[in-house]
Amino acid sequence: MTKKIVSISLFISWTILVIFITAGLFSFGNKPNQSSSGVQPNKTTPVSSSTATAGNTSIKSYSLNEIAKHNNQNDCWMAIGGKVYDVTSFIGSHPGGERAILSGCGKDATNAFDSRHSQAAFDLLPQFFIGNLNS
Ligand code: HEM
Fold first, then answer.
1. Residues contacting ligand 1 via CB (< 6 Å)
2. pTM of the model
3. Partners of 83 in beta bridges
């Protein structure tokens, strides 16, 4: 009689254990899905809004008249592809020589730049970026 009671209670406790384990597995399986689907909109929302805010507030734009004032060795701005660069600090180390780069100071030098340079030169530009060209 006691054996029966022991085996029945063992069976019941095992069944309860199995139910708990199954329930646990289900809840673990669902949690990552819930959190990842919850994280994605959170991730995209701040990123897009912060870049938009940064883009709207911090990037200046300059007219060709303004750029024309920076037309010498000590103060050299140029527009290339709709963006404005202050390349004064690069004049002395320009691989094509000072005279070549000086020819673009104070101007829209897009054609001069595009026609003579490799990707390496394009990669150098961002560090000199100061704003966009007014259209
Ligand atoms: C009106 C403006 C510019 C002119 C007319 C000009 C002209 C030239 C010329 C004639 C060369 C020699 C090309 C050759 O080796 O065959 C050269 C090379 C080079 N220039 Fe300029 N340059 C200008 C502006 C710039 C600026 C703003 C940068 C970078 C911020 C730059 C970066 C380079 C680099 C890295 C080279 C080595 C060759 C290459 O990687 O393309 N240049 N440039």
1. 87, 90, 94-96, 100-101, 103-104, 109, 112-113, 116-118, 120-121, 124-125, 128
2. 0.67
3. 80, 132
